[in-house]
Amino acid sequence: MLNPDLVGRTIVGVSSTQISEEAIAIFASALGHHGHTAADAAPPTFGITLTLSESQTLLQGSGLDWNRVVHGDQRFEIFQPLYAGMILSCNCTVESARAVAGNEIVTVRSDLISEEQTVVSSWSTLVFRG
Amino acid sequence: MTTHPLGQDFAVGQELPARVFIINRECLTQYANASGDQNPIHQDEAFAKSVGLENVIAHGMFTMGLVGHYVSQIAGGNSQVREFSARFIKPVIVPAERDVELKVHATVVEIHSETIRLEITATCEHTKVLGMAKALIGVIHQ
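Above: the input entities. Below: the structure tokens describing the complete assembly.
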């Protein structure tokens, strides 16, 4: 069952990750974009590689079953495009959690921070199928 | 008229050229490795069926990523994409033995001073797989 205290649960990223050129190139290539160079920004959805694992950490111990999760919707606001070499940390908050028709629907907001500025905000709605 | 960095003119209501992407199991494995999302529903047919799915399904973010590639190309580069959102309304089912086609096209719905907004349609086997898919991309006035 859904933990009623879930909404508002937050983690503030203490560890930082430096984005590697290779990680961007592999991600771009998996989307059919070959020939990505270091001068190119990361694909607009690249932030998910950082935010989804943080969301999983955020929801640990919530009783939600990751084997039953599907992605409901996703939104990105990109204030600064991501480039290789940027050092990012991630802050995550559960913005909403509700039960609908036997499913549990959780929206997590994740902010990617570089040099104290939010560069990308991401909202992921995850549906835990009942 | 608003002119794009690559010199293309945009008008509200304009439909932009469609593009077809091929999706198969190999693509999903590549995307799983590239993204770190190793949920077995995207790679393991027996597992997918055991949790009540018809078959292996594509990562929603893989489908959205392909659409993102399409949007970036219209925008003249990844760096021009300011907002991007989609709802995953139907799974993209990926059988083992064949490719699945994802057809993507966009319509210009708003033109602002430095940006344009696109509405995007993504269909797989004649079924819409994304809802409310939108992107805001940068443009340059001339």
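Note for the figure: The CA atoms of residues 32 and 88 of chain B lie 18 Å apart.
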